[in-house]
Design goal:
Oligomer: heterodimer
Number of strands of chain A: 11
Strand content of chain A: over 45%
Shape of chain B: globular
Number of helices of chain A: 0
Radius of gyration of chain A: 13 Å
Number of strands of chain B: 11
Number of helices of chain B: 0
Helix content of chain A: under 10%
Largest sheet of chain B: 7 strands, mixed
Radius of gyration of chain B: 13 Å
Strand content of chain B: over 45%
Shape of chain A: globular
Chain lengths: 109, 114
């Protein structure tokens, strides 16, 4: 079957680093995506990985290992505004997105 | 002007009512989507339109009826809904079906069915 797992909730401290993990099982693979969703707002695209390795974009980095069906989103120098839900998603062989339930990240001062 | 606009933002309706949700995208995209988002659950894809033609209908009950009159507009017509249909309904667009991973979402319509 098709499945994406990510932790339900995480807590981190302002200024610190946090890693949000995502494991997936899909029929076919055409990329892994991370989205950010603040409470009451629309999800916004953060990153896309299709090859193994680390993609860095400012304070945010995303890693992919296709052989392990594993990805993580790394957030550095955490700010209070990073408090949000982070959604992991991957595309199946029909290019349709399969979504995880999201990880709610709580940042404390 | 935001890329994807949804109206209304909030809707309360009884089980016998008929209402519609509206979505408009100003990005020149060719594909549009309706998603349902319930608390602590993954986003559920409901419908996909490409160049105004429906290409995906994920076993959605007939009480939800989509309409795509042109590539910029998408509607979701609602009738005889159930309380379990209460959720956030998100509209999204992408350049094309091959770009389903990079979606641009609207703010959503929060639906409450009494």
């Amino acid at each position: 079957g098709q499945n994406i797992d990510q932790p339900t909730e995480m807590t981190a401290t302002e200024g610190a680093i946090v890693q949000i993990n995502c494991t997936y099982q899909t029929s076919g693979f055409n990329g892994l995506f991370w989205y950010q969703q603040h409470a009451g707002e629309a999800p916004t695209f953060l990153s896309y990985n299709v090859l193994d390795g680390l993609e860095e974009k400012g304070r945010f980095s995303s890693f992919l290992s296709r052989s392990k069906g594993y990805s993580y989103l790394l957030l550095k120098e955490l700010q209070m505004k990073d408090s949000a839900s982070y959604l992991c998603a991957t595309t199946d062989s029909n290019y349709q997105l399969i979504w995880g339930a999201g990880t709610k990240l709580i940042i404390k001062p | 002007e935001t890329g994807v606009t949804q109206t209304p933002r909030h809707l309360v309706m009884g089980m016998t009512n008929k209402k519609s949700l509206k979505c408009e995208q100003h990005l020149g995209h060719n594909a549009m989507y309706w998603y349902k988002q319930s608390a602590k659950k993954p986003l559920e894809l409901m419908f996909v339109y490409s160049l105004e033609e429906r290409v995906e209908n994920n076993s959605v009950p007939s009480r939800f009826s989509p309409e795509c009159p042109n590539s910029s507009h998408l509607f979701l017509h609602l009738h005889t809904l159930q309380p379990e249909d209460s959720a956030l309904y998100l509209c999204a667009s992408s350049q094309g079906l091959e770009n389903t991973g990079e979606l641009f979402f609207g703010e959503g319509s929060r639906l409450t069915v009494l």
